[in-house]
Amino acid sequence: MKKKKSSWRKKFNEPVTFSVIPQIQNEESVVLFLVAWTVTEITRYSFYTFSLLDHLPYFIKWARYNFFIILYPVGVAGELLTIYAALPYVKKTGMFSIRLPNKYNVSFDYYYFLLITMASYIPLFPQLYFHMLRQRRKVLHGEVIVEKDD
């Protein structure tokens, strides 16, 4: 039986998660972001479900707008540490990278994509975190937030 070649398209259809890298699976940082994501999603979908049922317990509302204060930084730290731990493996193996020459005449280096992704956390994390803090004030304390026009 002849073994089929794995095309780049098939590789990119696989879930792009670091749990597919055996060397990274046991990193403590994976546990950090998985726990943070799991608690966040359980809280978020509980909030949505109870809201749809028009029966939102205050604790669920409170949890939705307070848990992120700890979970968001913990999740981001876990993500960044996991990406950092994966960098040597990604560089060594060329994982998810496309090299020239090829029939599509394109090149993509996943290693550099990850570095750019990590750098993007610097401007994006504070914006998203402060947005959530403003939402928290508005929902839990009834404050009206006036956004400044630039």
TrEMBL record:
Q: How does it sit in the membrane?
A: Multi-pass membrane protein
Top-level taxon in the UniProt lineage = Eukaryota
Swiss-Prot/TrEMBL catalytic activity: a very-long-chain (3R)-3-hydroxyacyl-CoA = a very-long-chain (2E)-enoyl-CoA + H2O; (3R)-hydroxyhexadecanoyl-CoA = (2E)-hexadecenoyl-CoA + H2O
Which UniProt keywords are listed? Endoplasmic reticulum, Fatty acid biosynthesis, Fatty acid metabolism, Lipid biosynthesis, Lipid metabolism, Lyase, Membrane, Transmembrane, Transmembrane helix
Key word Lipid biosynthesis present: yes
- Job description of the protein: Catalyzes the third of the four reactions of the long-chain fatty acids elongation cycle. This endoplasmic reticulum-bound enzymatic process, allows the addition of two carbons to the chain of long- and very long-chain fatty acids/VLCFAs per cycle. This enzyme catalyzes the dehydration of the 3-hydroxyacyl-CoA intermediate into trans-2,3-enoyl-CoA, within each cycle of fatty acid elongation. Thereby, it participates to the production of VLCFAs of different chain lengths that are involved in multiple biological processes as precursors of membrane lipids and lipid mediators.
Q: What is this protein called?
A: Very-long-chain (3R)-3-hydroxyacyl-CoA dehydratase
